[in-house]
Design a protein that fits this description.
DNA polymerase, domain 1, 5-stranded mixed β-sheet, 5 strands
């Protein structure tokens, strides 16, 4: 007879792990993904209830992963070890997707760019303005979170953006920021700062390829809508 006390749900936990090993996360509900992650830091305790509680509070899997350690520890049963594990996994995922971009050309193949942006800034509670630096062949040199703002705006100054581009020896740039409201429609301020950035780039000989606004499972592309090209023509007309 096994003298070790089996915790409640041990068989369920093993079945979750076997499902993942067999087919990845296909068919998993979001609370089951959180539950599986929590088991890594809680070897002798059933994690289903705390996983459901986390989803109930934060509403989405992405929001759970974006929650602060303090917020996570407010969930009954989730302690510092669990919150550390969730935050570490999120950070590793961000780094993995970022590294996949390096030396790629997101202008011709944008899938990795969108994957990275959606994953890294879609559910941020505050606006974040990111810069992707490209070389003369439009391959990614590096990425940078340039600024983090309030609930509704980030502070972006064209001179600082140009300084960052020169520091990275970038020939071209892609910009992106999130809208915590979930609506990616550009505000008048978004349009104004994009125009300033395009004009500043033209002055310095730096190409601005794109500005993407990330919303809730949607995005707005200034390039796709023809805004970048229009702003570039406006600059050319002004200096004639």
């Amino acid at each position: 007879m096994d003298k070790k006390k089996r915790h409640k749900g041990e068989g369920h936990r093993q079945r979750l792990r076997e499902r993942f090993l067999d087919a990845g996360l296909d068919g998993f509900q979001d609370y089951e993904v959180v539950e599986l992650l929590l088991t890594l830091g809680t070897p002798r305790k059933d994690c289903k209830d705390m996983a459901k509680a986390a989803l109930s509070r934060f509403k989405t899997l992405q929001a759970v992963m974006e929650a602060s350690s303090h917020e996570l520890c407010e969930i009954d049963g989730i302690g510092p070890k669990n919150s550390f594990g969730l935050k570490l996994i999120k950070a590793v995922s961000d780094r993995y997707l970022e590294k996949k971009l390096i030396n790629k050309n997101p202008v011709n193949n944008s899938k990795e760019l969108y994957d990275y942006l959606f994953h890294s800034i879609r559910d941020k509670a505050r606006e974040q303005f990111k810069i992707i630096f490209l070389d003369s062949k439009n391959c990614v040199i590096s990425t940078e979170t340039h600024s983090t703002g309030t609930l509704t705006a980030s502070s972006v100054y064209p001179r600082e953006v140009v300084d960052s581009a020169l520091r990275h020896k970038a020939a071209a740039l892609i910009f992106a920021h999130n809208h915590p409201s979930g609506d990616p429609k550009p505000s008048p301020e978004d349009i104004a700062i994009t125009r300033q950035l395009v004009f500043s780039g033209k002055v310095m000989g730096i190409t601005i390829h794109e500005h993407i606004i990330i919303g809730d499972n949607s995005y707005y592309s200034f390039a796709d809508q023809g805004d970048i090209a229009r702003m570039s023509r406006e600059f050319d007309m002004q200096i004639r």
